[in-house]
């Protein structure tokens, strides 16, 4: 499998325009990337633009803080699926996690997984805010909630993906049958390859087209 098939070409900036999303989808189509990752309001547009391709449409839920009501996350997920999103990347309730309310974290994840079914859910744990022990615990909770992936970062906090985090998460995720998505600050092929070598299955990056073209 080429690196292109691991790449989710991502544009989640609040100032992104319709034209920007059209360009994102065009680039993903041109280079045969795994998917695009867009904000919920652009799922329908992306699906329309990519309807005759195998490029997946991924969107985010509870983004970027993860601190909204579970019912809101579930509704956001339901609406995204109805707009033909193929995968959901939700943000874990980091506040509940840090508080130690693991039951709430699992329930929150499960509400999104159920709303997304049968489509896969990735859970963004915001690894830069967690200790190594907490990252391992987060993997367990992600699995308990029924999600398919653990994802490193939103890219909107103080740090993104690191090779060390991906190695740790991949080793832990394997215990539960989870996969790992690395995202946040991955801007060139060298960094992307390092994440894959560390155990990532998927890469979220705004430079997906350049990486696939060998330009970054």
Automatic annotation (TrEMBL):
UniProt keyword annotations, A-Z: Cytoplasm, Lyase, Schiff base
Catalytic activity as recorded in UniProt: 2-deoxy-D-ribose 5-phosphate = D-glyceraldehyde 3-phosphate + acetaldehyde
NCBIfam families associated with the record: deoC
Family the UniProt entry places it in: Belongs to the DeoC/FbaB aldolase family. DeoC type 1 subfamily.
Pathway of action: Carbohydrate degradation; 2-deoxy-D-ribose 1-phosphate degradation; D-glyceraldehyde 3-phosphate and acetaldehyde from 2-deoxy-alpha-D-ribose 1-phosphate: step 2/2
Active-site annotation: 89, 151, 181
Name recorded for this polypeptide: Deoxyribose-phosphate aldolase
KW Magnesium (keyword) present: no
Keyword match Magnesium: no
EC supergroup of this enzyme: lyase
EC annotation from Swiss-Prot or TrEMBL: 4.1.2.4
Organism: Phascolarctobacterium faecium
Entry GO terms, CC: cytoplasm
Function in brief: Catalyzes a reversible aldol reaction between acetaldehyde and D-glyceraldehyde 3-phosphate to generate 2-deoxy-D-ribose 5-phosphate.
Lineage summary: Bacteria, Bacillati, Bacillota, Negativicutes, Acidaminococcales
Subcellular location: Cytoplasm
Top-level taxon of the source organism: Bacteria
GO molecular function, one term: deoxyribose-phosphate aldolase activity
SUPFAM superfamilies in alphabetical order: Aldolase (SSF51569)
